[in-house]
Amino acid sequence: MQQLIECVPNFSEGNDLAVIKQITDQIESVEGVRLLNVDPGKATNRTVVTMVGEPKAIIEAAFRAIKKAGELIDMSKHTGEHPRMGATDVCPLIPIANITMEETALYAQQLAKRVGAELNLPVYLYEAAQPKKERSNLSVIRAGEYEGFSKKILLPEWKPDFGPAMFDSKRGATVIGARDFLVAYNVNLNTTSTRRANAIAFDIREAGRVKKIDGKVVNDEKGKPLSIPGSLKSVKAIGWFIEEYGIAQISINLTNINITPVHIAFDEACKKATERGMRVTGSELVGLIPLKAMTDAGKYFLQKQQRSTGVSEKELIKIAVKSMGLDELTPFKPEERIIEYMLRNNADDKLISMSLADFTDETASESPAPGGGSIAAYIGSLGVSLATMVANLSSHKAGWDDRWEEFSEWAEKGQYYKNQLLKLVDEDTRAFNKIMTAFGLPKGNEEEKINRTKAIQEATRNAIDVPLKVMQMAYESLEVIKAMATIGNPNSVSDAGVGALCARSAVMGAFMNVRINAVDYSDKEYVAAVIKRGTELEGNAINAEKEILTIVNGKIGI
Question: What is d(CA 52, CA 342) in angstroms, rounded to the nearest whole number?
């Protein structure tokens, strides 16, 4: 399986777009690397770049970018609000798919060693790539910043991990490491005071603030300052003034969004700002964010309103953006900010991305795909969508306020089945196309014949499995449909009835596809098991439909 690493180098240039482009051109020159996001900041004079690719390609792209940044950026002339120590200030590698943190750390070490040796640049390791825990924290490594680095690098305890122990006045030094996914996030305040923004930052960040009594620092028995921890774990934060926007912000790094997600950080910042007489006016995402972080935020804010969370992914993201004011300073475009959307291949969703009319026209065309399998998946998605609608309507029904969570859970289940069935619309067409591709393979010599036969059988197996999954999902969705016919808003009971008709048709239609594709599959034992399972699903779906229609017709009454 393909291993994927994300790399998020931060370059100390946020104003000269020509310089930034020369750096990102180096990244795009490497095959197998996808440049996902370039986020320059004027006040910070810093650009955060996000790229994804296989490990070796990412290492090459990062190396080229670090080299070019060192050629173009002069740190002796650099100013900016963000802490920094080099032209390429920090370059973290983040495991994304099919790769461990330990493996990612080894790649970070390889990159650091190459940068130090070939570019003659001081390099420090951090986080998971740094074996010495006392110098694994980025803020500790960067303490003193560029201005204090000429003296710091001469200290024995701060000898670089790679490269020369000499101050490079033009390029500074670079920190390379491996870490978990970090969300860089700024909260906007209705003040221009950096000191007051810092006060809120100290309130919420895990490190908190130094403990003082009567203005004097309180030390422990070893003479080290005691600290008062902040309210949020896995959070780093400082306050600053952004001249570009004319406001102070709390600059937050969420180092583990499973511990403190973005919506909790936002709400806590709001709480602490209010306590100090200020107000949060919005927030700003720097770089990219995982899809789950946005959908979780949408659900969180809907739950606070006691509204159903069983709405579409698009609606959850919209709720998250509006609730946290992510579009206050600049437009928030999900397709440019959510990492899964940036990696998504639109060709994989060709059919479900079409308009209803275009999908119908494509089905009616002389092309054999999309065919019955895709249509079965689509009508299945429509059937459970109707039930999901009933659940959402029921959660808002006057007089049923105390039942909103019950219906919200049903709506979430419905959304799950809807999404699974929608994916299978295109998957079924891809399965058909794979069979056609396999039949088109050469069959000249014996080896080619064997490879062709193998490819045809593999594609045929997939063309059986996909509609079988449609059957399974459509049948399971009948649970949601039946529940809504039974306990849902009685004014929408007919919608549940139509949903049942769709789900049953999806099961029966998909089974036809299973059977016709199974005819040409050589593993007859597998075919027998599939036909047995399909027959069971079809019978169960027909019986479930009858039960639901009995309920529906009984409630309609005429």
Answer: 10
Nearest to 526 by CA among 538, 514, 537: 514
CA angle 480, 486, 488 (to 5 degrees): 75
Active-site residue numbers? 82, 428
User: Could you tell me if 308 and 416 lie in one domain?
Assistant: no
CA distance linking residue 140 with residue 145, whole number of Å: 10
Residue 219 φ/ψ, nearest 5 degrees: -105, 160
Q: Going by DSSP bridges, is the β-strand pair 46-53/33-41 parallel, antiparallel, or unpaired?
A: antiparallel
Percentage, residues of the chain above pLDDT 90: 80
Predicted pLDDT of residue 350 = 87
In angstroms, the CA 100 to CA 270 distance is 36
**Residues 387, 551: Cα–Cα separation, whole Å:** 14
For residue 347, pLDDT over 70 is answered with: no
The pLDDT of residue 118: 97
532: helix, coil or strand?
A: helix
- CATH code of the domain covering residue 32: 3.30.990.10
Q: What is the residue-averaged pLDDT of the chain?
A: 93
* Strands 4-7, 88-97: pairing kind: antiparallel
CATH number (domain holding residue 315): 3.30.70.670
Quote the CA–CA distance of 337 and 306 in Å, as a whole number.
28
State how far the alpha carbon of 265 is from the alpha carbons of 187, 253, 268, 292, in Å.
9, 10, 5, 16
Q: Same structural domain for residues 170 and 227?
A: no
